[in-house]
Design brief:
There is one protein chain. The chain is about 40% helix and about 20% strand. The chain contains 27 helices and 28 strands. It has a six-stranded parallel β-sheet, sandwiched between helices. Helix 10 crosses helix 12 (about 250-260) and helix 13 packs across helix 19.
Length: about 725
């Protein structure tokens, strides 16, 4: 094995979950930086690395150093000090002044600030006001500096160290030393692997009970990220042996202890012993109990005569509902809980409009909600009622959770929840807890789309159990049938390749452009977004066109495509501000996506906006979101943003875009599933273009059913068997 050491110039890619990183590293004696790949819990530009591995050649990327072992060291160079001072931690010093101060005082800069602060005014631009600001901030940061030295020495980046200090305060060192694995539970952005690497540096034993508990929990939560509510115990122990290097007997004993403390729940489901995190087992039980109770509940209040109500709708709208639509309206009037499921063009919006008109005419209070902001805006547009996200409606507060619950329920009579396929089991539990006792609930969604990103497949399990009334819409109405997007989506959902017409007639809204290699696909994507679609459809790349791809990694994943599309659609310019942060380069004009809920800023996971301004002193970026709001991001918030020229298909759930472009390649082999392609196609409103390999598309179309999700909800609901004989 060869060894290599140098300074990180750029973090091209890094994922917290696995630690997988692609780095540009400056090596002594080499003119150009080299690419190093490997796994490291945390890495920042400017840090020093030591890598052990071998040189390899990759067809798409050239010669790289593939590291089997990759370690970072706290920076000892001027560059490292400069990065620390420029992090935004010390008020009055940003990247520009950090550079000036280090140029003037070198490695003595800390001593100058501490005991000779008057000398700071020797630096051009630093007057008495800025000097006092720096000194005052420095005094406030004394305990932080001590903590930072400790955390940096244990391999923690500056950004994560700041988060640890904010969470733990002056007890940070003591708490990290007592149980470094607790960081994975307490600090956003620090996963088990990062915490475990810190513990290893601190010399903690590999068989520490806290480590086994944290590792097992990490695996269960990682399974939740894959959509599972549980894992088979045998599989969990096998994964834990690989992760932790502990014997299976010790891990099984650790599970016994965790079960005894109700941290996990062990249950047999369909003959398999599953291990659930305690909170997910409780969520499944609550959701199942609520639906079973509602199945036996009667509708209260005055009976609404359906035929008279339908006649009134016909009179008001001039629209006669098809028999399937009318049947759905009758069901909504008769049931406490109704599920309406169907694909695009099957009339879900028409049914909702009729149902809500009828209830509104009876003075019923109507509440509309959806899992995401984009889905809520679509629901508002289609129904005329103000729709809110579930989190906002339930009044989620960081630290204290949902304020609406059994003790403080929502106010309303009829509750409509759209895009239900996106709702995971935990969120559904909180939603059901907050409903008033006599409420009606209408769940609307397309069960054939991708299930929720979070654990469970609630909509599919509720439908499969037959515990409540379900209306399945299958008829495509004439106007919708004229859209090739809709006919293509239904063809894919039925396991057939969508038809394409060559040459495409004017106004055709669905296209498949065959391309072979990833490089050809990327070239076509750039051409479509930069020239062809804007010219033919009058749509521009930021607000009008969205690239959707199955994966984050690979040359056709979001990381690589965003770099390619950024350079093509928003290239660097001397008059255009830009900044590097967390391995990403942001420019004014970039399309960005919020990656997690931020309730203080009222921006949520999946919200897309455009960078409209940035400053280096202090480090700050401003993003204009689609609803017109301007949101500011300080240095510590920027890790919540990613470029959004390309996003994953999973991230697009609940959204619609004027135009959608989808790369389809065998590079995405493991992700090629029917529901993935179906979901991608149904995101486009005016135009959908698939670009790539017809064999890959055919593979996706032929893979129905999706991947199994380990869950106990279906059984808790009563299992399959159609308890409600009226389900259609």
């Amino acid at each position: 094995m060869e060894s290599l050491s140098g300074t990180v110039e750029r973090v091209t890619f890094h994922t917290e979950d696995t630690g997988y990183s692609v780095l540009k590293v400056k090596i002594r004696g080499r003119a150009e930086p080299v690419t190093v790949t490997g796994r490291v819990p945390a890495v920042t530009a400017g840090e020093e690395i030591v890598a052990r591995g071998e040189w390899v050649s990759v067809a798409e990327y050239g010669r790289q150093f593939k590291a089997e072992q990759l370690e970072t060291k706290a920076p000892s160079s001027r560059e490292g000090i400069e990065r620390y001072l420029g992090s935004g931690l010390v008020e009055g010093i940003g990247p520009v002044y950090a550079k000036k101060l280090v140029a003037k005082f070198g490695e003595e800069i800390f001593e100058v600030i501490e005991s000779q602060s008057a000398r700071l005014e020797e630096v051009p631009g630093v007057g008495s006001k800025r000097r006092r600001e720096i000194k005052a901030s420095w005094e406030k940061q004394k305990s932080i500096r001590r903590i930072m030295v400790f955390l940096h020495a244990n391999g923690i980046s500056t950004a994560k160290a700041v988060k640890i200090f904010r969470a733990y305060g002056e007890q940070a060192i003591e708490r990290v030393e007592a149980n470094p694995w607790q960081l994975a539970d307490d600090i956003a952005g620090i996963g088990f692997r990062t915490a475990d690497a810190i513990a290893v540096r601190m010399g903690m034993p590999v068989d520490a009970p806290e480590r086994m508990r944290a590792g097992l929990f990490h695996l269960l939560l990682a399974a939740g990220d894959e959509g599972h509510c549980a894992l088979p115990e045998e599989e969990l122990v096998t994964r834990a042996v690989d992760l932790l290097g502990c014997g299976p007997e010790r891990l099984s004993a650790a599970l016994e202890r965790m079960a005894g403390e109700a941290e996990v729940v062990r249950e047999v489901v369909d003959g398999t012993l599953l291990v659930f995190p305690g909170h997910l087992a409780r969520a499944e039980r609550e959701v199942a109990e609520w639906f079973r109770r509602m199945a036996a509940a009667r509708v209260g209040g005055a009976v609404i005569e359906p035929e008279a109500a339908l006649a009134k709708v016909r009179e008001e709208t001039g629209r006669t509902l098809a028999e399937g639509q009318a049947a759905a309206v009758r069901a909504a009037l008769a049931e406490r809980v109704l599920v309406i499921t169907g694909g695009p063009g099957t009339g879900k919006t028409t049914i909702l409009d009729a149902v809500l008109r009828i209830f509104a005419s009876r003075d019923k209070r109507i509440v509309a909600a959806a899992p995401t902001g984009r889905a809520a805006r679509r629901l508002s547009e289609s129904t005329g009622y103000e729709a809110m996200t579930m989190h906002r409606l339930l009044e989620y507060q960081p630290g204290s959770g949902f304020q609406k619950n059994r003790e403080h329920p929502l106010k309303g009579d009829v509750f409509v929840l759209d895009e239900c396929s996106m709702v995971d089991v935990s969120l559904m539990m909180h939603w059901l807890r907050a409903l008033p006792e006599q409420a009606r609930l209408i769940l609307v969604g397309d069960v054939d789309q991708l299930p929720s990103v979070g654990p469970g497949q609630v909509l599919a399990d509720v439908i499969g159990s037959g515990v409540v009334r379900v209306v399945r819409l299958t008829e495509i109405f004439r106007q919708a049938a004229e859209s090739r997007i809709i006919t293509a989506a239904h063809a894919v959902n039925a396991g057939r390749m969508p038809e394409t017409v060559r040459p495409a007639p004017p106004g055709c809204d669905f296209h498949f452009i065959e391309r072979g290699t990833p490089e050809e696909i990327k070239g076509t994507l750039v051409h479509l977004l930069r020239e062809r679609i804007p010219a033919a459809f009058g749509l521009e790349a930021v607000e009008g066109i969205q690239v959707l791809t199955p994966m984050n990694r690979g040359s056709l994943g979001t990381a690589a495509l965003n770099m390619e599309l950024q350079d093509a659609l928003n290239p660097a310019h001397e008059m255009k501000a830009e900044l590097d942060r967390f391995g990403l380069r942001f420019r004014v004009g970039d399309k960005v996506i919020q990656t997690r809920n931020n309730y203080e800023k009222e921006v949520f996971n999946g919200d897309i906006g455009r960078v409209v301004g940035m400053t280096a002193e202090p480090l700050r970026m401003e993003v204009r979101y689609e609803d017109g709001r301007l949101v500011g991001y300080e240095a510590g918030d920027l890790d919540e943003l990613r470029l959004a020229w390309a996003i994953t298909i999973h991230k697009s759930q609940g959204s619609e875009f004027p135009a959608v472009v989808v790369p389809v390649s065998m590079q995405h082999f493991v992700m090629l599933q029917r529901n993935l392609l179906y979901t991608a196609i149904t995101r486009g409103r005016k135009l959908v273009v698939l670009v790539g390999d017809a064999k890959a598309a055919a593979l996706a179309v032929g893979r129905g059913g999706g991947q199994r999700r380990w869950s106990g909800l279906l059984g808790r609901l009563g299992g399959a068997g159609g308890k409600n004989p009226e389900n259609e």
